[in-house]
Amino acid sequence: MADRLSARLRQDTRSAHEAARANGFLDALVTGLLPWEAYADLTAQHWFLYEALELAARTMADDPVARAFVFPELVRLPALEADLRFLHGPRWSYRIAALPATTTYCTRLRYAANSHPIGFVAHHYTRYLGDLSGGQYLGRGVARAYGLNGEGHRFFIFDGINPDALTTYYRQLLDTLPWSPYEQDEFITEVLEAYRLNIAVLDDLRRRWT
Ligand code: HEM
Asked: Quick one: which residues bind heme b (predicted)?
């Protein structure tokens, strides 16, 4: 029997995930080595990414395959806007700017995720499963490092969701996708691209703040 897609994914993206972890910017944040402005900058970059991703989710909500992945409980934009208001003040939208790698990521995301379920699920998986897994550790770390208590780190908190249960369910959904081996390859290729784009954003942030 062919490998389940969720298992293939884990295996084929293991080294990309290692590279993302090895970048060091997120570790420097959770250990409090960077000023809070660096954390506020990461939050700003997230806003640009999730604006593009969650707009694509609205476009894909009627797609017969992609719609299974459109969970209203995952939507991050309102939490990010609350965090930005807390971190940058009421005029936050005038005070944030996309880094060059963020602009590149958003361009790819709009191209890949609005037109086809394979691209959409690839970008959706890379961000939200990351947020529900390692993101939970990062959220606790930044709250501790920057003395946040409720405000400023809402992005990491999924109200009404058990992250472990949703991650398990998400993997089951991946395993029921009606994709041919060729389409599965295309999906994994786009997930690897999404990892590269995330690492490039972290590289830009690291260059700016370390
Ligand atoms: C300091 C940085 C990071 C840490 C400590 C971290 C940690 C983790 C951990 C502990 C898991 C759970 C693994 C498991 O269930 O066996 C995970 C999963 C995941 N992470 Fe990360 N991560 C980091 C950065 C990233 C980045 C930058 C991305 C890309 C956006 C990412 C994407 C993912 C994805 C997609 C999964 C789900 C894998 C799967 O179960 O299919 N991670 N991460």
From this structure: 10, 17, 125, 171
Does 114 sit in the ligand 1 pocket, CB within 6 Å?
Answer: no
Q: Tell me whether residue 17 is annotated as binding.
A: yes
**Number of folded domains that form the chain:** 1
The answer to whether 67 touches 77, Cβ cutoff 8 Å, is no
Is pTM beyond 0.90? Reply is yes
Cα 50 versus chain centre, distance? 8
- The Cα–Cα gap between 148 and 140 comes to 9
CATH number at residue 19: 1.20.910.10
Range of the domain at 62: 5-208
Compute the distance between CA of residue 28 and CA of residue 195 in angstroms, rounded to an integer.
19
Burial of 58 (0-12, 13-18, 19+ CB in 10 A): exposed
Q: Measured in angstroms, how far is the CA atom of residue 116 from the centroid of ligand 1?
A: 24
Q: How far is the CA of 134 from the centre of ligand 1 (A)?
A: 5
**Is 76 a known ligand-binding residue?**
no
In short, whether 27's Cβ falls inside 6 Å of ligand 1 is: yes
